[in-house]
Design goal:
CATH topology of the largest domain: D-amino Acid Aminotransferase, Chain A, domain 1
Strand order of the largest sheet: 3-2-1-4-5
Largest sheet: 5 strands, parallel
CATH class of the largest domain: Alpha Beta
Number of strands: 15
Radius of gyration: 21 Å
Number of helices: 13
Distance between the termini: 38 Å
Order of helices and strands: EHEHEHEHHEHHEHEEHHEEEEHEEHHE
Length: 345
């Protein structure tokens, strides 16, 4: 098969090393990998064949920088890794496709709805997808009122910015937690807060929009895969376990048709294309990411490479669906930290 050049954005993301390795070890063809990131201190600088620094994904200059990089390096396809890159890349999708570059990103409207967590919850709730009870608020008084409506202080609640990525900005409000134990025994960043701790930091009116919601409880699970026109072509559920610094470090593939059906409804509601990740805590969907996330890899089921082939028209949706039987529910994945060394800046 002919060689391909693939651009991977956010090449400093935690999943970069495993993703790049899977793309290289596809078993069919040689891939030339181009990485880009807003920081030069990105592992993609060392693991990709070529690397470039680009503006942050939210910067107005990001889409143009990606288009220019694709033209300069002869890129055939772009795989985004960060939610922050999606809006700019979706806006540039038409220009990229006109230049013969497949951008593995959903439509601008899908990206907007998924990145706006409150809007995402509203749409999912209307479609019958189980989500936490929530309120969209701005300002101190609205925040305090929303927490009370959701049961605080009788029960803990949580909140995060309406526009955020992953666990950034996520905090729990719980007046009963042993805060002294957390202060002295737990890692930074895991402290629960009281409502008054947050309220004093918020402006009386205005400020950032927040999503205040019931605290979902239970084990964490996700549905990951490849979608087309809002339908799952190939995907599977897995657990998310052993959290460290907001990242799951251990995963188990599951045989759970009901969970897969929940993922299907979420993907259909948001009309997701290409890679997706639907995250649940207990039975509630708390996050939908229209991008690639942590993958449990198999030697005979290389999801990133299969998604790439589908975007390039090299494998049909029927052929992808037929591969579902290969998913091994005995599969486990353990993440770990590694490092690279070099001389110079």
């Amino acid at each position: 098969m002919s060689p391909l050049t693939v651009l991977v954005t956010a090449a400093g993301a935690p999943g970069t090393a495993a993703l790049l390795r899977a793309l290289r070890e596809n078993g069919e063809r040689e891939l030339r990998l181009v990485g880009c990131d807003m920081s030069e201190r990105s592992v993609g600088r060392f693991l990709c064949d070529t690397f470039a620094v680009v503006p942050p994904g939210a910067d107005p200059g990001f889409p143009g920088a990606v288009v220019d990089l694709c033209a300069r390096e002869g890129v055939d396809a772009v795989i985004p890794q960060s939610s922050h890159d999606l809006a700019g890349l979706a806006a540039a999708r038409g220009e990229l496709e006109s230049a013969g570059v497949a951008a593995l990103v959903s439509s601008p409207e899908t990206v907007r709805r998924a990145n706006d967590k409150a809007e995402c919850y509203r749409l999912l709730d209307e479609a019958g997808v189980p989500v936490p009870a929530f309120r969209r608020v701005r300002g101190r008084d609205a925040f305090v009122a929303a927490a009370a409506e959701l049961g605080y202080p009788g029960q803990p609640v949580c909140f995060k910015p309406v526009a955020s990525s992953g666990s950034r900005g996520y905090r729990v409000l719980d007046p009963t937690v042993d805060r002294a134990h957390q202060l002295l025994r737990e890692r930074p960043g895991s402290l629960a807060l009281r409502r008054e701790d947050v309220a004093e930091l918020l402006p009386e009116e205005g400020g950032d929009e927040l999503l205040v919601m019931e605290l979902a409880r239970g084990g964490e699970r996700t549905v990951d895969g490849i979608a087309k026109a809002g339908r799952i072509l190939l995907g599977h559920p897995k657990t998310r376990e052993a959290m460290r610094a907001g990242l799951a470090m251990y995963f188990r593939t599951l045989d759970d048709p009901e969970l897969l059906a929940v993922g299907e409804r979420a993907v259909r509601t948001l009309a997701i294309e290409h890679f997706f990740n639907v995250q649940l805590v207990g039975d509630l969907v708390i996050e939908v990411n229209p991008r690639i996330s942590t993958i449990v890899y198999q030697e005979d089921l290389n999801l990133p490479y299969l998604g790439l082939k589908h975007a390039l028209g090299e494998i049909s949706k029927e052929e992808l669906a037929a591969l579902h039987s290969r998913v091994r529910t005995s599969r486990r994945a353990l993440r770990y930290f590694d490092q690279v060394e070099w001389d110079g800046d």
